[in-house]
Design brief:
There is one protein chain. The protein is mainly β and 296 residues long. Helices cover 7% and strands 37% of the residues. The chain has one helix and 23 strands. Strands 11, 14, 16, 17, 18, 20, 22 and 23 form an eight-stranded antiparallel sheet that branches. The structure holds zinc ion. The site of zinc ion (ZN) has 5 residues, from loops.
Length: 296
């Protein structure tokens, strides 16, 4: 594979001061933050271009689709551990025969991730015994399967997303956490406030890819929205859908609860692009409405 930055059609491959690329590739937001979604747009698609580019970002395949404006669009994920720039590996149709990649560097803004200290039941910070380790590993493997399968699912979502509950954010994505003064981890979701029994709505169309009772996550639902996008709902008191169900935007999928490792009832909401966990609130900064509506 040959890495060529700045092919003729890509201009100089450099960035303007405002972060707008001079290349035929744009993205929204212009400087995505660590742990967020990004929308990639190929500006240069000619009317006759029908072959989508092949692209990879942070090890995940992108799924380009032609919009009503003729441009190819795809979502991608910016890992929380990304450095100042993240290479987008792009293989445009005319370069396919030689498998020639163009590298476009996407600038990444540093996230502000505060530290918080929490007290939970001691069983959630003790070193898991072998039976519990096996259980947690099985749960991770099931979640990993969803992350892989979503790349095979065609896009089910369209238009803007909505919040799953009308809550306020009680703990933001990416925070460092110390449990009971010892265990340290990172908060890979956004917590929304809600009392036990508050309905949880699907933020957009998707298929229920996983329903489980997980050790840390409690009662959990994974929605596969297709084309790489998954959203996850944790600590539910009640699950009102089954694996394989197709859910529509706004449909009630469960109720807020306090199952798993929690300090009280709330909704822990996560989004993933493939295996990359991102802040679900970035669904609202990514111009999701610019994607073509789905055929009825
Ligand atoms: Zn949480």
């Amino acid at each position: 594979m040959l890495f060529v930055a700045g092919m003729a059609l890509m201009g100089a491959g450099t960035l303007h001061a405002q972060g707008e690329p001079t290349t035929g590739v744009r993205w929204f937001p212009t400087a995505p933050v660590q742990g967020s979604l990004v929308q990639i747009v190929i500006e240069r698609a000619a009317p006759a271009d029908t072959i989508p580019p092949i692209a990879t970002l942070a090890g995940q395949p992108l799924h380009f689709e032609r919009g009503i404006d003729g441009r190819f669009r795809a979502l991608g994920g910016i890992p929380i551990g990304s450095r100042a720039t993240l290479p987008l590996l792009l293989q445009l149709p005319e370069a396919r025969r030689e498998a020639r990649d163009t590298v476009v560097r996407i600038p990444v803004a540093a996230g502000e991730f505060a530290m918080e200290r929490l007290a939970v039941e001691p069983q959630f910070v003790a070193r898991p015994d072998s039976a519990l380790t096996a259980r947690i590993d099985r749960e991770r493997a099931r979640a990993g399967t969803v992350s892989r399968q979503t790349h095979e699912t065609s896009r089910l979502w369209s238009g803007d997303f909505r919040l799953p509950v009308d809550g306020r954010v009680t703990s933001s994505f990416g925070r460092g956490r110390e449990f009971n003064g010892t265990l340290q981890s990172r908060h890979m979701g956004t917590d929304l406030s809600g009392q036990t029994g508050t309905p949880v709505h699907a933020p957009n169309r998707g298929v229920v890819a996983l329903v489980g009772d997980f050790y840390y996550a409690g009662n959990v639902v994974y929605l596969d929205h297709g084309a790489g996008l998954v959203t996850v709902y944790m600590h539910l008191s009640k699950v009102l859908v089954a694996e394989g169900d197709t859910v529509e935007t706004g449909q009630i999928i469960g109720e807020v609860g306090a199952t798993g490792r929690v300090t009280g009832p709330h909704l822990h909401w996560t989004a993933r692009y493939g295996s990359i966990s991102v802040d679900p609130l970035s669904l609202f900064d990514t111009e999701m409405g610019a994607f073509a509506p789905l055929a009825p």
